[in-house]
Amino acid sequence: MADPKAQAPPRFPGFYERFGVFAESLLVGMWVVLASLPLVTYPAAFAAGARHLRRHLDNEQAGWREFAADVRTAGRRGWLVGLAGWAAVWLLWLDLSAVRAGLPGGQAVAAVGVLAFLGCAVAGARAAAVWHPGASWRALLGAAGRRTVLDPAGSLLIVCGGAVTVASAWFAAPLAIPVTGAVTAAAVAVEKRYAHR
To answer: Could you list the residue ranges that cross the membrane (predicted)?
Structure first.
């Protein structure tokens, strides 16, 4: 005779699936941070993490091997995007230095620089969230730039996720690792939401 408890439906339907996505995003955070250690590979790492989460949500084969293969594929041209990102950070630092130096109009230039930097960062995250093998980074970034402007709510969500990552790293550096996975999951969710609109 079968155990009646074994046949009972779960008390919290959907809870285990949602918790599985949360746990997977924490794992992706570790993978993305590890794959980003060469510094210019962070777009490829983020793209591979997002693709891993999409595969997980679609119940496809998703593991470390697939993630590593995606990092290699995305990194073939993605390192140029990473280099451009570091150039943007340097330009932002120059803008903020102009404000600290007291140059006339420095505050306005810094405000424009910060907004432009945030826009580029969000477009990069959105492009990485929809990356797939064979996709052109240039085309992805162009389309992501348009979505960044046309979907301000989704873009703001990604900015807030990035701010939480920076605050976590400021408070305790190890906290930035799982939060990176949460930002990756947020970027995937924002793109799925936009696609279904």
So the answer is: 26-48, 78-96, 108-129, 149-167
